[in-house]
Amino acid sequence: MTRPTTEPEAVPFPLRIPGEPFPPPRYEEYRRREGLVLTHMPNGGRVWLVTRHAEVRAVLTSKKVSANPDREGFPHISDTMGVPRQEQIPGWFVGLDSPEHDRFRKALIPEFTVRRVRGMRPSIERVVDGLIDSMLAAGDSADLVADLALPVPSLVISSLLGVPPVDRGFFESRTRTLVTIRNSTEQQRDTAAKELLRYLNRLIGIKVSWPGDDLISRLLATGAISTQELTGVLMLLLIAGHETTANNISLGVVTLLLNPEWIGDRRAVEETLRFHSVADLVSLRVAVEDVEIGGRLIRAGEGIIPLVAAANHDQEAFSCPHAFDPGRTERHHVAFGYGVHQCLGQNLVRAEMEIVYQRLFERIPALRLAVPVEELPLKYDGVLCGLHELPVRWDRPATAP
Amino acid sequence: MRITVDADLCVGAGQCVLSAPGVFDQDEDGLVRVLHSRPVPEDADAVRLAGELCPAHTITVHED
């Protein structure tokens, strides 16, 4: 294998530029380059970009690579691009390596099995139908992000955690402030995070005294996670499952409106995940030993960003990768990451997406975009790709009550 | 074809159950359980897919 030894010229960061489509067209050029691509984080740190599918999977399963943000050289995204940094909270296990990570993951796995998620489907259907009822009752137009895509994961997670109905308004508003970047300041998000942590603490206290049929009560019963750690675990579940799902829902609806031949085909869910790869910048890593990736030696202490959107559009792994084709046979996308940190809630996300696509187009078959597709506000200011708003319209049936 | 698993490595993503539901299941802890360690030829492609998708390399598919 050839090993480039000269330092390549660094490409600019951030990788996404307003007005450009997503994934950025430059990813294709990066994949064709020999070796890896170098960039500098906003704080100046050198980081290697990994863009090819096989190499992204190699990074995410390498024992020489760490997910711990406290490690020297870890590539931190700037503070303005994400939710307030939570890494100091005990139980934030996405930032831990094995074996510390595994205790948390193993405690949570039973909550997200294929069978358990299947059992949640009726309650997800009720949530989705209730939100569509409200949209229909309000008129003949809606913002599908605010009215459906964001509230679905919010209501599903609050039901899973056993948030009392009376607290749902508080819970949802703070969550929304925390996970949406455009309409809130850093200080507002920080306040919302503190209020949510305080709320989750109180909720855990209630579940200690009065256990119910919910995730918090079941985790407390196992004793595998301390109540202090549990707060961080819940915060992580809340954030990880929220805007990611919302972005997949809204982008998927747009893609189905543009490709109506796939409406009603369940395979559209998996292809939406690959095609949009909303969590492109989520799986950040740092080398803890020298490791060779893509023919280049990455030194211990150097940051690595495996770009999942680039991997999912690699033509070595997917034929005609830029086409939205739910009928494709390749299923090995890395939209949920890969390795031990692969998304724990992935089957819940799939169920939420599938039920939304199904119910929305069944109940509002005349659904259409209310603005030209080029005018939809794509997110460039966060770690996730998605839509800030999705204005839609429909014609009321002539015989509407 | 023969399947072996190292359940200690399992991270409970459930991709095997989705790919080959007649061959893999999750136990009460959510970890992989092999229902048929020598799957029938009709399941061979689904089993290979399960091996390919497993994020933690828990599943090994032996082509013997």
TrEMBL record, chain A:
<keyword id="KW-0349">Heme</keyword>
<dbReference type="Pfam" id="PF00067">
    <property type="entry name" value="p450"/>
</dbReference>
<protein>
    <submittedName>
        <fullName>Cytochrome P450</fullName>
    </submittedName>
</protein>
<keyword id="KW-0503">Monooxygenase</keyword>
<comment type="similarity">
    <text>Belongs to the cytochrome P450 family.</text>
</comment>
<keyword id="KW-0408">Iron</keyword>
<dbReference type="InterPro" id="IPR002397">
    <property type="entry name" value="Cyt_P450_B"/>
</dbReference>
<dbReference type="GO" id="GO:0016705">
    <property type="term" value="F:oxidoreductase activity, acting on paired donors, with incorporation or reduction of molecular oxygen"/>
</dbReference>
<keyword id="KW-0479">Metal-binding</keyword>
<dbReference type="GO" id="GO:0005506">
    <property type="term" value="F:iron ion binding"/>
</dbReference>
<dbReference type="GO" id="GO:0004497">
    <property type="term" value="F:monooxygenase activity"/>
</dbReference>
<dbReference type="GO" id="GO:0020037">
    <property type="term" value="F:heme binding"/>
</dbReference>
<dbReference type="InterPro" id="IPR017972">
    <property type="entry name" value="Cyt_P450_CS"/>
</dbReference>
<dbReference type="InterPro" id="IPR036396">
    <property type="entry name" value="Cyt_P450_sf"/>
</dbReference>
<keyword id="KW-0560">Oxidoreductase</keyword>
<dbReference type="InterPro" id="IPR001128">
    <property type="entry name" value="Cyt_P450"/>
</dbReference>
Automatic annotation (TrEMBL), chain B:
<dbReference type="Pfam" id="PF13459">
    <property type="entry name" value="Fer4_15"/>
</dbReference>
<dbReference type="InterPro" id="IPR051269">
    <property type="entry name" value="Fe-S_cluster_ET"/>
</dbReference>
<keyword id="KW-0408">Iron</keyword>
<keyword id="KW-0411">Iron-sulfur</keyword>
<keyword id="KW-0003">3Fe-4S</keyword>
<comment type="function">
    <text>Ferredoxins are iron-sulfur proteins that transfer electrons in a wide variety of metabolic reactions.</text>
</comment>
<dbReference type="GO" id="GO:0005506">
    <property type="term" value="F:iron ion binding"/>
</dbReference>
<protein>
    <recommendedName>
        <fullName>Ferredoxin</fullName>
    </recommendedName>
</protein>
<dbReference type="GO" id="GO:0009055">
    <property type="term" value="F:electron transfer activity"/>
</dbReference>
<feature type="domain" description="4Fe-4S ferredoxin-type">
    <location>
        <begin position="1"/>
        <end position="29"/>
    </location>
</feature>
<keyword id="KW-0249">Electron transport</keyword>
<keyword id="KW-0813">Transport</keyword>
<dbReference type="InterPro" id="IPR001080">
    <property type="entry name" value="3Fe4S_ferredoxin"/>
</dbReference>
<dbReference type="InterPro" id="IPR017896">
    <property type="entry name" value="4Fe4S_Fe-S-bd"/>
</dbReference>
<keyword id="KW-0479">Metal-binding</keyword>
<dbReference type="GO" id="GO:0051538">
    <property type="term" value="F:3 iron, 4 sulfur cluster binding"/>
</dbReference>
